[in-house]
Amino acid sequence: MANTTSAKKATRKIARRTEINTARRSRVKTFVRKLEEAVAGGDKEAAKVAFTNVEPEIMRAVTKGVIAKNTAARKVSRLSARVKAMA
């Protein structure tokens, strides 16, 4: 358990940031799931729309430090390939 005042404050900050980061990660997963459902359903237009929504969401997660840049690039690349494969 934290003893000093600064350590107690740090644990409070960590708890807040964890909550925010969890929400951001969940938001990205939701957008990715919508895209995957569109791809699985075979709906090209819905998949394209979902991809245009998911890409900026993933990149926003990168700028907020939730996921790493290369991880995001890999995810976007693979999702893009799946959307292109439908055509």
Give the topology:
Elements: H1 5-41, H2 44-63, H3 69-86
Low-confidence stretches: none
Got a strand count? 0
Question: Tally the helices: what do you get?
Answer: 3
- Portion in beta strands: under 5%
State the CATH class: Mainly Alpha
Q: Looking at the structure, what is the overall shape?
A: elongated
Helix percentage range: over 70%
List its traits:
3 helices, mainly alpha, 87 residues, 0% strand, Methane Monooxygenase Hydroxylase, Chain G, domain 1
What does the model show?
It is a single chain. Helix 1 (about 5-40) packs antiparallel against helix 2. By secondary structure, the chain is an all-alpha fold. The longest helix is centred in the N-terminal third of the chain and has 37 residues, at about 5-40. It has a single domain (about 5-85), classed as Methane Monooxygenase Hydroxylase, Chain G, domain 1 (Up-down Bundle). Helices cover about 85% and strands about 0% of the residues. It has helices at about 5-40, 45-65, 70-85. It is elongated and about 60 Å long.
Summarize the structure.
The chain has helices spanning 5-41, 44-63, 69-86. The protein is mainly α and 87 residues long.
